[in-house]
Amino acid sequence: MRIGILNxxxxxxxxxxxxxxxxxxxxxxxxxxxxxFVWSDDESFxxxxxxxxxxxxxxxxxxxxLFRYHYFLMAKKxxxxxxxxxxxxxxxxxxxxxxxxxxxxxxxxxxPGFWEETKKTGTPESRIESTAYVNTSDITQYCCGxxxxxxxxxxxxxxxxxxxxxxxxxxxxxxxVWHDESHLNKYFSENPPTKVLDCGYCAPESAWSxxxxxxxxxxxxxxxxxxxx
Length: 229
Known about the structure:
By secondary structure, the chain is an alpha/beta fold. The protein has one domain: Spore Coat Polysaccharide Biosynthesis Protein SpsA, Chain A (Alpha-Beta Complex). 28% of the residues lie in helices and 19% in strands. It has helices at residues 17-27, 63-66, 68-73, 76-79, 152-171, 179-190, 223-228, and strands spanning 2-8, 33-40, 51-55, 84-88, 92-94, 106-109, 147-150, 195-197, 203-204, 216-218. The radius of gyration is 17 Å and the shape is globular. It starts with a strand and ends with a helix. The mean pLDDT is 93.
């Protein structure tokens, strides 16, 4: 089985990738072959693992995150050759074994700020003019943007819908409140993920704790670190 790992790494975010990929090799679906798909503005970076690199221009904030689903579609042919694909933020690290629990058609992960029962609807886009608008009553669990995945067919279908909606918003000069994450949660409200994992799979490294076993950490980082780590 081939597992595709997707990362966006413009500017100094690329400096996180070798450590992330090392942790994936150690802990993430260890019995399966991995192929890494990286979209970066640096073609000369020395990656340690099997990386399919696609050159993109750095868009700054929020463009580097907002357009991630557009970027994924640039490698549609290659991604369809995988059995499962997973997106992880570049500044994450796997710290415990992640096994077959992630193998599902469309995977979501609880947002670590909204795991409590009274907060599960999160902070979706509230402007009806945006294609990301969703009524909180339609949200079962607000999901994080930092880790998701599924089969190539389902994930790329989601990517196509989100990219299209972002383009429609751009024509109206609208950027959703939490960018790609807002569009992700709109999509999930209409196309529920086949599995939602707890936020131990996207736990803050030290900003606050969550009452689940930590499997994947969102690492602490500073503005200075991102400028010149």
